[in-house]
Amino acid sequence: MTEPADAHRTIRLGPRQTLTVLSSTPDALELECVWQPGTPPPTHWHPTQHEHFDVLEGELTVVLDGDQRVLAAGDALDIPPRTAHRMWNAGSDPCRASWTVRPAERTEELFRTMARRPGPLAKLGVLWRFRNELRLGSPRR
């Protein structure tokens, strides 16, 4: 059985979040993300990366530096480096957004590693290995 041509572009981060890699260069990782309704993920931040989201359909709940808001289709969001955030679909319908991470660093590799669903102990290793791309909690100011 052969794999669909675009299967390598799809990354399932779990039952509620699917990423499609549109472009991956050292400068930027461009994705399309679909969130199914679900619960909030942990708060996290990125030491040097800037993220940009454009909501294409549905609603996306965002907590950015402690302030919660709901983004709807047509809304955009920029997240500078060292900004604590989390986002999820608190609605009842799927949410779809474009997502750009600059610079890309090893973010695609991080997502592919997370998609393999490492166990609790292995997750600590993932956090250490990708500490330049992702940190849990809030940064010290």
TrEMBL record:
In terms of SUPFAM superfamilies, this protein maps to: RmlC-like cupins
Question: Taking every annotated instance into account, which residue ranges of this chain make up the domain Cupin type-2?
Answer: 33-99
Q: Which InterPro entries match?
A: Cupin_2, QDO-like, RmlC-like_jellyroll, RmlC_Cupin_sf
Q: Which PANTHER family match?
A: PUTATIVE (AFU_ORTHOLOGUE AFUA_8G07350)-RELATED (PTHR36440)
- One Pfam family recorded for the sequence: Cupin_2
Q: Which CDD domains match?
A: cupin_RmlC-like
Q: What is this protein called?
A: Cupin type-2 domain-containing protein
Q: Which organism is it from?
A: Knoellia flava
Gene3D superfamilies, alphabetically? Jelly Rolls
